[in-house]
Amino acid sequence: MRQAFIGFLIFLGVAMVNGQEPALPLRELAAARDFYIGAAIHTEAIKSNADYRALAEREFNLVTPENMFKFGPISPAPGEYDWSHTDALLDWAEAHHMRVHGHVLVWHQQQPGWLNEDTYSPEQLAAILERHIRTVVGRYKGRIHEWDVVNEAVADNGRLRDTIWLRALGPDYIAKAFEWAHEADPEAVLYYNDYNGDTPGLKADAIYKLVQGLVEEGVPVHGVGLQMHLIWQQQRSATPRAIGEVMIRLNDLGLKVAVTELDMRIHDPNRGREAMLDLQAEVYSNVLRACLDAPNCDTVVVWGVSDAYSWIPGFTGNDDWPLLFDETLQPKPAYEVVAQALAGED
Ligand code: XIL
Q1: Would the CB of 72 count as within 6 Å of ligand 1?
Q2: Architecture of the structural domain at 25-343
C-alpha cells in the first residue's frame, strides 16, 4: 500500500515537473524516498514575512537556523542566553514536521563581544566552551536531530585554523566539543562542518584526516557537513563523480555526509542573469544527484530560501542570485532540476 502511494507521488511529481507548475513540493518528493531537503532560515524573515514562511513550510522538511544558534547572537552576556528566536523556531519547525539541523556550537566567527583572551584564562575559556555546549544542546535535547558541532576548524592550508579555541584548549578542543555535545544529547547526530572539502583536494584530505583521527580515538563524530558555497567557475569541477568520491571515502570511515549550506553564485559581468540560470541548475542537479547516489547522504540543505534574503550579496558585493527561489519567491530553473532529481528523473 505504502509502496503504491509512494509510486503515485513520484509519478505525480514527474508529470508536473515536465509541465508548467510543479504540483508536488520538494519536501513531498524527498519524503517519498526518505530524504531531507532543507533550507537555512533567516531570523527576521521568518518573523515578518508570511509568504516566506509559507514557502518554507511547503517546500522543506528540514530547517537550519542560519544565525540564531551562533554563540554571539544567542549569548548577549557571559552565562546569559536569549532563547526567544530558537524557541520560536523549534516550535514552528515541529508544528510543520520539519527536522532541525542545529548550527553551530564551535566556530571562530560571530562570537560574543564579551568573549576574548584578555579577559579569560585558557582554563576559563575551556569552561566557557563546555558550559555553552552543554547548555545549548541540553536545552533542546531530543528536539534537534543533528548538530554542526565544530565548524571550519581546518584552514585553507590544511592545518588546524588558529582560533581562540585552539589557543586555549589545544587541538583536543575538537574531540572535547563532540564529547560534551554527545553527553548533553546522546541521540543527536553530530557533524564536523567545513567548506571547500566537497571535491578531492588538499582541504578534503585534511578534513578526512581530522575525522579519521577522531573516529580512531572513539570520539562521537557521526558525519561530515559539506557546506558547498559554490561559484559558477566550479561548474566543471563540481561533478557528481568528484563529489561522490569524497562522500564514499567518508562512508568507508563509517561516517554520514550532508550537504549543509548549498548556494551558487552566478554573477558574471560578461553575461546577464538569464544566461547563467541553466548553468546554476546544472550544478544544483549535480549536487543533488551525488548525494542521492551516495549510500551515506540523505540530506541537502540550501543556504537560504530566496535570493531576497541570501547572505551572498552582502559577502561578495554582487547580486549573485544563488538560491532556488528568486527575490519574489518564484522558483528558478535550479528548483526544477532539484525536483526532477528528487523525483528520480534522468
Ligand atoms: C553566514 C550567514 O549566512 C550570514 O547571515 C552571517 O552574516 C555570516 O554567516 N559558513 C557557515 C555559515 O558555516 O554559518 C555562514 O553563514 C556562511 C559560511
Answers
A1: no
A2: Alpha-Beta Barrel (3.20)
